[in-house]
Amino acid sequence: MAEQANSLVQIRDLYKRFSISGDLLDQLQFKGGKLTRHREYVHAINGVSLDVMQGEALCVVGESGCGKSTVARTVMGLLSPTAGQIAYRGERIDNLSDKQMLPYRKKMQMIFQNPYASLNPRMTIVETLQEPIKFHNPSMTRGEIQDKIAEVMLSVGVDPSWGERYSHEFSGGQRQRISIARALAVNPEFIVADEPISALDVSIQAQVLNLMMDAQEQRNLTYLFITHDLSVVEHFGTRVAVMYLGSLCELASTKQLFSNPRHPYTQALMSAIPRLEDDRPDYIKLTGEVPTPVNLPSGCVFHGRCPHANERCKQEIPVLTALDDGTQVACHGVEEDRL
Ligand SMILES: Nc1ncnc2c1ncn2[C@@H]1O[C@H](COP(=O)(O)OP(=O)(O)OP(=O)(O)O)[C@@H](O)[C@H]1O
Ligand code: SF4
Ligand SMILES: [Mg+2]
């Protein structure tokens, strides 16, 4: 697969739809005296292409239901694409058998939103951590495994002497640290984190975020970081991908996105951030109904709510295009130089 220099993960023309019409019996309907089969889909991702670059923290933002988690899960191989491809260092991985996928499972790890659900309550912390280490490093000795467990526990700020405790004995923040330790235990290169701090108390969100940033620096990690919190993006992200209704609207460096958002949806998102210093445009109130991914709008998926929509926007799907400053935007208005 064609890849840019320094690109670690390549997502190409990705589509994912989910059937919501049940089994065959549910799908059969009588219409005009005839038996017909009626199928309905949620179009969760519609033609997303992007590269995650080596060493970056690429944040994916957008409102609830826009497809962020579906992108994350598809990249990790937890869902298979309806169309399109995922590649790792140029090698396609979306069509591999479990066995072929094994080396990638070690390089790619995922951290989930809910540390209560993602840790097995019947396992001690040591058992939780040694499971992936043993699985991915069958030749490691007991001593080496113990050293590795102690190393990752220390690196996430959990005292190794607590190893025999169970996850329910820990707070949410500590559990998320343990989930991070489990991901780090197999020396991954790439971590997909799906809202990893949004279930935590606000007071400890920053600690866990800082921990992830330290791990990135020390271990040369690359992150795909899903969040709906723009202050987290500003703090953590090197680049940002903005999604709306399963499409990528804008892909820009964090600096560019915050100083000069180009896509009308990004502009509306950014204008909603409360700020003390008032140097940004006034709050942009979006009108129009939020469409559903079951009946996708024609043309630009944002046209029903965009203050700049014209006839072309209603008909033609805009393509993500690079501007002079490197920002990529999918908007006819920007392309036509009227925005
Ligand atoms: N297994 C599934 N079956 C049917 N629809 C699904 C399934 N998983 C996701 N969807 C739908 O796909 C769309 C995208 O969902 P996704 O979870 O990726 O959104 P999200 O951006 O992560 O949202 P949130 O911010 O709420 O986590 C939504 O409309 C969702 O209801
Ligand atoms: S393509 Fe048209 S409708 Fe879509 S964001 Fe741009 S101006 Fe608005
Ligand atoms: Mg989600």
Task: Please characterize this protein's 3D structure.
By secondary structure, the protein is α/β, with parallel strands linked by helices. It has a domain at 263-339. 32% of the residues lie in helices and 23% in strands. It is built from 12 helices and 14 strands. It has helices at 24-27, 68-75, 98-107, 125-136, 142-155, 172-184, 202-219, 230-236, 254-259, 264-271, 311-315, 332-335; strands at 7-19, 28-31, 34-37, 41-53, 57-61, 83-88, 91-92, 108-111, 190-194, 222-226, 239-244, 247-253, 321-322, 328-329. The strands form 3 sheets. Strands 8-9-10-5-11-12-14-13 form an 8-stranded mixed β-sheet, sandwiched between helices. A 4-stranded antiparallel β-sheet has the order 4-1-6-7, covered by helices on one side. Strands 2-3 form a two-stranded antiparallel ribbon. A hairpin with a 5-residue loop joins strand 13 (321-322) and strand 14. The chain is globular. The two termini are 34 Å apart. The site of iron/sulfur cluster has 13 residues, from helix 12.
